[in-house]
Amino acid sequence: MNTKRNKTYNAKPLEIDPDWKIMDAADKPLGRFASEIALILQGKHRPTYTPHTITGDFVIVVNAAKIDITGRKRANKIYYRYSGYPGGLRQTTFSQMIEKHPDRTIRHAVKGMLPKTTLGQRMLKRLKIYAGPEHPHDAQVIGAQKRNEKTAQAAQSS
Q1: DSSP for 9-36, written as a single string
Q2: In this structure, what CATH number is given to the domain that contains residue 125?
Q3: Which residues contact 148 (CB under 8 A, 6 or more apart)?
Q4: Cα–Cα distance for residue pair 51/56, rounded to 1 Å
Q5: Closest alpha carbon to 67 in 30, 115, 14, 20
Q6: Cα–Cα distance for residue pair 92/81, rounded to 1 Å
Q7: Domains identified in the chain, total number
Q8: Per-residue pLDDT of the chain (158 residues; tens, 9 = 90+)
Q9: Residue 79: in which H helix or E strand, if any?
């Protein structure tokens, strides 16, 4: 019995060519939006996903201040920070957090959906969040689009 066995593909860091994706957070539910971002950061949207390697893309989130949340969570959802000192517990509601630091609500939600390892920390560094519609990453986005066009043309010609 001579059967041919297929080997599992493992992506190597040099083979991975990350893209830059722009996502608009305006009027989207926080949890569903964060889960989309987490999938892209991990690389689970690609057929070359490898659990022990970062195969994901960079994600740019714009309009973070316009993120939506369902139900009464705008007033009832509380974010906690603890300094480590007695009496050092700080509480902030969702509405206060959106006013002062709109990027932290999305970052906090995405961080909870990523692996709790150094790999997850490196994935989170690929997330860029901006309160308004402007972002300084135009060159990276355009470069990634040109690179994708070249690979598509090369695939069509062969």
Answers
A1: P---TTT----EEEEE-TT-BHHHHHHH
A2: 3.90.1180.10
A3: 19
A4: 10
A5: 30
A6: 8
A7: 1
A8: 567 788 888 999 888 889 999 999 999 999 999 999 999 999 999 999 999 999 999 999 999 999 999 999 999 999 999 999 999 999 999 999 999 999 999 999 999 999 999 999 999 999 999 999 999 999 998 888 888 888 888 888 87
A9: strand 78-82
Q: Flag whether 24 is in a domain.
A: yes
Residues 53 and 51: their CA atoms lie apart, in Å, by 6
**Helix or strand (DSSP H, E) at 32:** helix 30-42
Cα separation, 59 vs 128, whole angstroms: 6
Rg, C-alpha atoms of the chain: 19
pTM of the full structure: 0.88
Give me 80's structure tokens: 């906690």
CB atoms within 10 A of CB 102: 21
Q: Examine residue 120 and state whether it is found in any structural domain, yes or no.
A: yes
